[in-house]
Amino acid sequence: MTAIDVQNLSHVYGERRALDGMSFQIPNREIFGLLGPNGGGKTTLFRVLSTLLPVQSGRVSVLGIDMAADSSAIRRRIGVTFQAPSLDRRLTVRENLVHQGHLYGLSGRKLADRIDERLARLGLTDRRDALVSSLSGGLQRRAEIAKGMLHDPELLLLDEPSSGLDPGARHDLWRYLQQIRNESGVTVVVTTHLMDEAEKCDRLGLLDHGRLVALGTPAELRAEIGGDCLTIASENPVELSSKIASRFGVQPKRFGAALRIEQSRGHELLRELVEAFTSEITSVSLGKPSLEDVFIAKTGHRFWDENE
Amino acid sequence: MTISRNRGAFWLPIWTLTWRELLRFFRQRTRVVGALGQPIIFWVLFGAGLRGSFQAPDWAPTGMTYQEYFFPGVTVMIVLFTAIFSTISIIEDRREGFLQGVLVAPVPRSALVFGKLTGGTLLALIQATLFVVIGPLLHFVGLAPSLGWQLSVGGWLAMIAFVGLLAFTLTALGYSMAWSLDSTQEFHALMSVFLMPMWLLSGSFFPVPESGWLSWVMRLNPLTYGVAGLRRLMSPLVADAAASSSLPSLLICVAATCVFCLLTVSVAVLLTHHRSVINVR
């Protein structure tokens, strides 16, 4: 079963093309991460998937329902957690959940029981009557998730769920996401720009300039660029780059003052490089490729632009 | 089965959005105090200050003081301001993210509109009624003239119903303005160049002149008919006054207000239904 099926999706804001012919599938029970820099198209894609924006061109079906045909049927079965908290800060945690339940057609005893159950599950029972504005960021995010999960959605969409959370709260969040996936079979889609968070996803889609540049498990993506990654800092990177190319027959990629070489036997090249260009190299590091390296390899530019 | 489910999916969201609006209002105590205190102060101060320069219009019962004249005008002001302040929350809701949560819920967009409008209307109605009850009591402490109004139960109900209609209309007007705005500052700007003049030129503050450009502006102002209608419903002394250019008949007042209401509510619903970038900002 496919939770999300996106075919050739494009979205344009006026002149700007935010999504450019994107296609991918997300199977049920997967924790899927959309990784990309700000402005890469994550937020637009998230808004289309959460039915806030219409499908301009291409096809999107969520839980087997075509979005263009019946987005309200989709809304009933998905839970959405936005980056900006959607809780009413002047209401208590419980009041927020009652309100949410009513919006999803739940009421009475059934709603009260479900709220108690969710609060207990997320460790919020003793804070149920606290105003949301009095809660810490981590507790607010938990309440936010309780809100998004209240109507038992089959698919949970989370936009930058870790932003503003301390490491402990972030850990709790991911444990909960894994728990609902394992126990309730919920498909989870998160957007993120954090590499360590992306590592926790079953599969990742890398987004850049409205395109999907890579798709796979974190391990697969790293394996694609293969071997080791050498990063060389130099005072004169342009000159050094051409010297390396002529002497070793590999063309380094240059990013500002840094050169980067992907090589299967990196440690051997490292030794030879240092011996050959001792004076020109300021520093050099050797490592297994990170997801950031994958991103650079796929897009030809850094995740964070220099001027950002 | 499907019908009852659909009905629940429409009325329950309206109820819950209304409930939230009331809860938020009563939780902000200063808002409660300000909403009723300010109009009473206005009524007493302007009533005292403008007593001497007031020229009663042709339809006024003999001996009408400015404060008596101003009473329905202040009631409309309460309705207008409450309506405005409850719709300003749309801008906050959008900025804080609350609105997004409602927009992704399986709720018809019209339920969102009606929930918000019902909340604003109830708040306006509660405050206007309190003012209408408390205002005349100031007579006993010497701050107001004796209004001497004896309204029947039916008269009260008709008046409250009309205030409700007016409140619904003005909340819808505020909603339509607030929907496409980014900041509350913009709303305040619109308020001072559009909503305040609309109230000033509605016959609330001074009577519609017999002729001249001002009389035309005021006769074209839909709120003029709301104020005139309220005058007729509030005071049995005014109720039977002959229809004139400065005080249209009750029938015209109700009809004009209904048209105004239909117009503002339609705009509010249409704006909300439009799925666009503004709705997700």
- Describe the biggest sheet of chain B? none
Greatest chain-chain interface? A-B, 33 and 29 residues
Class inferred from helices and paired strands of chain B: mainly alpha
Q: Count the helices of chain A. How many?
A: 11
Q: Residue share in helices of chain A? A: 25-40%
Low-confidence stretches of chain B: 1-5
What is the average per-residue confidence, as pLDDT of chain A, rounded to a whole number? Answer: 87
Give the termini separation of chain A.
Answer: 40 Å
In order across it, which strands form the biggest sheet of chain A?
6-7-8-3-9-10
Instruction: Please report the number of helical segments of chain B.
Output: 11
Shape of chain B: globular
Q: What is the 3D form of chain A?
A: elongated
How is the main sheet of chain A built?
6 strands, mixed
* Integer-rounded radius of gyration of chain B: 20 Å
- Provide the succession of SSEs of chain A: EEEHEEHEHHHEHEHEEHEHEEHEH
Oligomeric state of the chains?
A: heterodimer
- End-to-end separation of chain B in angstroms reads 37 Å
Q: How are the SSEs placed, and which strands pair?
A:
The complex is a heterodimer of chains A (308) and B (281).
Chain A: E1 2-13, E2 16-27, E3 31-35, H1 42-49, E4 57-62, E5 65-66, H2 71-77, E6 78-81, H3 93-103, H4 108-121, H5 137-149, E7 155-159, H6 167-184, E8 187-192, H7 195-198, E9 203-208, E10 211-216, H8 218-225, E11 228-234, H9 237-248, E12 253-255, E13 258-263, H10 266-276, E14 281-287, H11 291-299
Parallel strand pairs in A: 3-8, 3-9, 6-7, 7-8
Antiparallel strand pairs in A: 1-2, 1-4, 4-5, 9-10, 11-13, 11-14, 12-13
Chain B: H1 2-27, H2 29-49, H3 66-96, H4 98-103, H5 109-137, H6 153-179, H7 184-200, H8 213-220, H9 222-234, H10 236-239, H11 250-273
Helix pairs in contact in B: 1-5, 2-3, 2-5, 3-5, 3-6, 3-7, 5-6, 5-11, 6-9, 6-11, 9-11
Describe the structure.
The complex is a heterodimer of chains A (308) and B (281). With 308 residues, chain A is of the alpha/beta class. Chain A has helices at residues 42-49, 71-77, 93-103, 108-121, 137-149, 167-184, 195-198, 218-225, 237-248, 266-276, 291-299, and strands at residues 2-13, 16-27, 31-35, 57-62, 65-66, 78-81, 155-159, 187-192, 203-208, 211-216, 228-234, 253-255, 258-263, 281-287. In chain A, the strands form 3 sheets. A 6-stranded mixed beta sheet of chain A has the order 6-7-8-3-9-10, with helices on both faces. Chain A is elongated and about 75 Å long. The two termini of chain A are 40 Å apart. The mean pLDDT of chain A is 87. Chain B is mainly alpha-helical and 281 residues long. The two termini of chain B are 37 Å apart. The model of chain B is unreliable at 1-5 (pLDDT under 50).
